Amino acid sequence: MLSVLVEAGMLATLIYCIILKLIYYICIFSYYNANISHAPLNVVQQLDTHPQKKNQEVIIIVVSTDGSGNFTTIQAAIDSIPFRNKQPVEINIKEGFYREKILIPKTKNHITMIGITDNDETVIAWNSTASDVMYGGQKLQTINSATVAVEADYFIARNITFMNTAQAPRPGAVGGQAVALRISGDKAAFYGCRFLGHQDTLYDHRGRHFFKNCYIEGTVDFVFGNGRSFYEDVELHSDPNYGIPGSITAQKRDEMTIETGFVFVRCKIRGAGMVYLGRAWGNDSRVVFANTFMDKIVMPKGWDDWHIPASDKTVYYAQFNCTGEGASTMGRVEWARELTPEEAAPFITTKFINGESWLEKLPISSTWPSPLIP
C-alpha cells in the first residue's frame, strides 16, 4: 500500500512540474509577442517589397548607441522579434561600436541587418575564445565563441564589421579559437561585410550561403566549417602566424555524397607571411578557387592534408584560371586539381548553392534596391 502511495505521489509531482513548464513557455511566448506589438512608434511600417512578397508587412527596427533609435543594443532588437517569425524584419544599425555577444536563434528567420553607413563604421565586437569558461564550469568550445551566431534561416547582413578582438593564439596553444561570426542557418547572404579575427574567424558552419564584396582576415583556418557556400569578389587577407604558415580554409565535408564545400570566384588573396589555400579538416574536404588572384604569400604546395595521408585520395582541392605569383601549379601537391572549363562549370556560378531558387527571392530592403546588387 505504501509503495502505491509513493508512486502516486511521484506521478503527481511529475504532472505538476510539466504544468509549470508549460505555463513558463506560454509566459515567455506572450512576452515576446507583447514586446513587438508594443514597440515604439514607426517600428512597424508598410514598405514596397520584393514582387513575391508584395503587400507583406516589413518590420523596421532602428538601433543606435546614442538612444535615437528604437533600441541601443542589437540583441535587444533581436529579442523584440516574435518566435517563429515569418515576416521580413529589417534592423537598421546606425554608426557605432557595439560591444556585445549576439545570438539569432533558429526560431527567428527572415532578419536583415544593415549598417547604414560604411562597414568600418558599424562594428560588432566581442572577445570570447574556445577556452573561456561558462557558468557551471564548462568551456565555451569553438562553436560558442562567436561574437555573432546566426542559427536562423534567410539571414542577410550588409555593411557590417563582425569582429573577435581576442589575441592571436601562439602555435600549439589550446583553446585559442575565436570566432567573429558563425552562420548555421540556411539561405543566408552577406554583402559588403568585414570579418576580423585570427584563428577561426568565420565559422561557415552549415547551410547554403552567399558572400559578395566582403573582406575576411585571419591567420589559421579563418574560413572553416561544413557550409555549402559561394564567395564572390571577396578579399581573403592572411596575417602573419608567428613565422609558421597559416591556412585560409578548413572545410569539413566527411562524405563524398554530401554537396557541401567552399567556392571562391574572382577573389583576392593578399596579406603577409605564408599561407596554405586550405587544409583537410574533413576526409572529403572540398574547396575550389576560380578566377582568383593569389599573391606570393600562397605556399607553393597550395594545400595541406593535416597529416592524414589517406585524405589525399578523397579531398577535392582545385583551382581554375587563377592569376598571381601564388597561383602557379608547378609546386602543388600531386593530389591538387587544375580544372578544365568543363570541370569548373558546376562551381563558377551561384547554381552551386542553388542560388536561382532563393537568392532572387530574398526581400528587398528599404535602403538597398536588390539583394543581388551590393
Automatic annotation (TrEMBL):
Family assignment from sequence similarity: Belongs to the pectinesterase family.
Catalytic reaction list: [(1->4)-alpha-D-galacturonosyl methyl ester](n) + n H2O = [(1->4)-alpha-D-galacturonosyl](n) + n methanol + n H(+)
Protein's recorded name: Pectinesterase
Keywords tagged on the record: Aspartyl esterase, Hydrolase, Membrane, Transmembrane, Transmembrane helix
SUPFAM superfamilies: Pectin lyase-like
Pathway: Glycan metabolism; pectin degradation; 2-dehydro-3-deoxy-D-gluconate from pectin: step 1/5
Transmembrane recorded as keyword: yes
Enzyme Commission number: 3.1.1.11
Record has Hydrolase as a keyword: yes
Source domain of life: Eukaryota
Domain Pectinesterase catalytic: 61-355
Enzyme superclass (EC): hydrolase
